[in-house]
């Protein structure tokens, strides 16, 4: 019985943050329904719906989207009243309201979810029986629901935007390090095309994590600009570290692609495979040391392991040049690109890469 009980609870215990978020959302919606119903006739349902649409996993996102939703819905309600008075509640009024609300949401620079929520909430406000009195009542209910969502969103996640950025950096860093370590071990065992395909798939999965870490770093920076609880300089430093990790991930995907192409053309000589494996193992250790060095003030502990990584990249290049007659010109170029990727990883890890100063968007090339 005890084993069955643990088996039932395990999926929930493994997802504590998710469980916390849905619990807070449920309590917030119930609170909005209670408050809205107490203050306004039939105001509870609208308040609960708006609260459910607005609440997010962070205070910053809820404040931003809640404000946008309140402003957007107020304008949407005004548009709804005008269109209903002109065309009655029907095809034309619904179409005009949806169109204008979408434009307003875009003008307010809301994200994809909030851009949908604004016209949805406007439709709720202009529902059956709309009049100036009911529109104002529903608009106040919208304000109540959004305000409660903002208040409860503070409890949706146990960490701050900066803390979540660190979690994202560590998560993608651990997966990157593990992939390089697995590739290194595979090269020592004479890898196959199937092995290389799996590595490339994992490399692509890392690339897919880039929008998440970028979004979280942007949130940490935006939050620090208005909140006195989050120093701006530390948030900007974290954004730089997140960008450095993005650069690292792009290079790792490039390594996986080069090895996949190499195994299709033919086997690499054992001494070259072993040299590449040694360099990749060093890269794996460098990434691990980097992410393990995150301190309480979001500072990375200085390490000299990136200097060792540069030496490994240079050693690999020298080995390839010394054995240039063992492999084809195409294979040589692929292996030299791996050495270049490793060098760029070292520059990204110790933040000496000139590309980090641009803080531009990363647009990984398609495979």
Could you explain how this protein is built, in words?
It is built from 14 helices and no strands. By secondary structure, the protein is mostly helical. The chain has two domains: 2-153, no CATH class; 161-357, Methane Monooxygenase Hydroxylase, Chain G, domain 1, CATH 1.20.58.
Could you name the CATH topology of the largest domain?
Answer: Methane Monooxygenase Hydroxylase, Chain G, domain 1
Order of helices and strands: HHHHHHHHHHHHHH
What's the average pLDDT?
A: 78
Number of extended strands: 0
The number of distinct structural domains comes to 2
- Quick one: CATH class of the largest domain? Mainly Alpha
Name given to the CATH architecture of the largest domain: Up-down Bundle
Any idea what the shape is?
A: elongated
Give the N-terminus to C-terminus distance in angstroms.
51 Å
């Amino acid at each position: 019985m005890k084993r069955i009980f643990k088996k039932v609870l395990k999926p929930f215990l493994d997802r504590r943050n998710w469980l916390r978020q849905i619990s807070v959302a449920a309590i917030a919606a119930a609170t909005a329904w209670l408050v809205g119903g107490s203050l306004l006739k039939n105001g509870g349902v609208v308040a609960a719906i708006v609260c459910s649409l607005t609440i997010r996993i962070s205070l910053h996102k809820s404040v931003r989207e809640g404000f946008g939703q309140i402003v957007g819905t107020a304008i949407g309600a005004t548009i709804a009243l005008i269109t209903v008075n002109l065309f009655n509640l029907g095809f034309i009024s619904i179409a005009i309201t949806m169109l204008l609300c979408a434009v307003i949401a875009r003008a307010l620079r809301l994200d994809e979810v909030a851009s949908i929520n604004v016209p949805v909430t406007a439709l709720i406000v202009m529902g059956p029986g709309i009049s100036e009195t009911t529109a104002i009542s529903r608009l106040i209910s919208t304000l109540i629901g959004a305000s409660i969502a903002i208040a409860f969103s503070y409890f949706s996640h146990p960490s701050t935007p900066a803390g979540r950025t660190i979690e994202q950096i560590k998560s993608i860093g651990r997966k990157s390090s593990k992939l390089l370590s697995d590739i290194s071990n595979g090269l020592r065992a004479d890898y196959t095309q199937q092995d290389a395909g799996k590595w490339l798939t994992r490399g692509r999965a890392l690339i897919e994590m880039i929008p998440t870490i970028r979004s979280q770093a942007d949130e940490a920076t935006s939050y620090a600009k208005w909140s006195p609880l989050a120093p701006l300089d530390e948030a900007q430093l974290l954004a730089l570290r997140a960008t450095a990790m993005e650069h690292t991930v792009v290079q790792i995907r490039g390594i996986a692609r080069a090895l996949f192409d190499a195994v299709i053309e033919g086997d690499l000589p054992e001494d070259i495979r072993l040299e590449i494996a040694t360099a990749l193992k060093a890269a794996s250790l460098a990434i691990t040391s980097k992410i393990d060095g995150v301190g309480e003030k979001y500072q990375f502990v200085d390490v000299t392991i990136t200097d060792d990584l540069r030496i490994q990249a240079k050693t690999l290049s020298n080995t390839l040049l010394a054995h240039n007659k063992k492999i084809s010109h195409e294979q040589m170029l692929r292996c030299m690109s791996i050495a270049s990727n490793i060098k760029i990883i070292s520059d990204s890890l110790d933040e000496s890469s000139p590309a980090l100063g641009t803080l531009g968007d990363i647009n990984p090339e398609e495979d």
